[in-house]
Amino acid sequence: MKKILTLFAVIGLIAFSSCEGPEGPPGEPGYNIVGTVYENVPPNYYNFTTSNNFRVRYVFPQRILDSDVVLVYRFGGVDSGRDIWEFLPETHYFDDGTRDFSFDFTFSDSFVDIYLNGGNLTDPALDQYRLNQIFRIVVVPADFASSVNKNNINDVMKAAKLSESQVQKIKL
What is the CA radius of gyration of the chain? Predict the structure, then answer.
């Protein structure tokens, strides 16, 4: 009896290990992309004013996955011919070490809100931060975001295999 059961087990193992079915359907289009980058480009600047409560919103062209995260970078200028991108949240301090103002953001599966908060946001000294702002909004899988240096947009884009030509331009 033991020999018969062993024989059936061996035959079953051979039969089932060689089974092959038809190829499954392809995945949904676009979901095999590691990341997406959006950038508002001149003259499509974001302005943080009292009329918009120092908040701007970008609505994604399509909903992002629940497993995705959003990284936001503010264009901080050019140094030695290279763009400087500041990773948000970004906080600026007074000389005495107290907080002056901050850029921060929140996101959902359909939009990202970027906002400026602080004490006197209408101070003309903040115009260089409030007006004519450019942002890069990067959408990547959460597990990817935990394995890369998020402070450096160049590292993020390199790891995600994204080139400058793949940055999607936002027109306001």
Answer: 25
Query: What pTM did the predictor assign?
Result: 0.78
- What is the DSSP secondary structure assignment for residue 52, as one 8-state letter? G
Amino acid at 51: S
Half-sphere exposure of 154 (CA within 13 A, CB side): 4
Q: Which of 98, 90, 93, 71 is nearest to 154 (CA)?
A: 71
Q: Based on the number of CB atoms within 10 Å of its own CB, is 153 exposed (0-12), middle (13-18) or buried (19 or more)?
A: buried
Distance between CA 157 and CA 172 in Å, rounded?
A: 24
Among the listed residues 30, 107, 39, the one whose alpha carbon sits nearest the alpha carbon of residue 62: 30
Predicted confidence (pLDDT) per residue in 72-106, tens digit? 999 999 999 999 999 999 999 999 988 999 999 99
Start-to-end CA distance of the chain, whole Å, equals 78
**Contact between 114 and 54 (Cβ < 8 Å):** no
**pLDDT tens per residue across span 130-157:** 999 999 999 999 888 888 899 999 999 9
